Amino acid sequence: MVRSRRPASLARSRSSYHNLQKPSPRKPGLRGFVLVVGGVFGAGLAWSLLPQAPGLPLEALQALPLRLSEGWIARAPAPPRPGDVVLGSPQLPDLLEQLKLADQNWRPRAVPLAGGGFRYLYLRRADDPLLTIDQIKQRILNPPAFERELQAIAALVPALEGVGVRLLLGPPIRQGATAEWDPAGRTIRIQPAVVKSGSLEFARVLNHEAIHVAQSCRRGSPSASPRLLGLSNNLDPQGQRHLDDPLYARASALERSLEREAYANQQRLDLALSLLESECPQRR
Taking the model in full, what pTM does it have? Predict the structure, then answer.
């Protein structure tokens, strides 16, 4: 007998980073292996519009972020809120260990039955096909390692530091979001529950938000209002579902375009790093 579990949404999770090693609660009436949070996520974008400078024409206002690009480094990112956990290079080894621990949840389990035989339990994401018994057995013997995702995370965290962006594990300001980029505070906030979902989900969320950082840098600095980068905006079915989420129901056309660009490219794990290098001024 095969039973799969799709991870639940991360949207309303408020678990603490310090409690990541606690076992996930089991839902009443469900037997077997259940992960509370998983691969279905929605990333939000917190907006920061430049204040209007009196006496400046429209053309000058549009160019203002470029003229300020040399001054943003002097301003510190927004301070963490109570309960937020700063995630930088010193915390990176612990984060990677937490993600590796969470990745073990994606290894199928064979549960012996009282009358003989086994029940196979495994997690799958929304668009993953059902596995055959032989495929499940192979995955038990050769579980996914997520090395590519771990390498991307290990590279992105210091890269974001290098352009003056603070990364926090804590609830986003926008209710219902899994993560958000706040240009005014030069801060990325990610729900702590994303860590529990493993390396693949965390890498995509971080990559998504780093693309938003590059969108801000396209206007001259991470503190600027985001601007489209001109990347592909072809969405897969999962990306389209995210963009159709009620979270974006009242978003402007530009906001939706910025999110579409990020969702369309978040699985390209090497992209955000190259965008940060090409679009964002480095700290001196």
Answer: 0.74
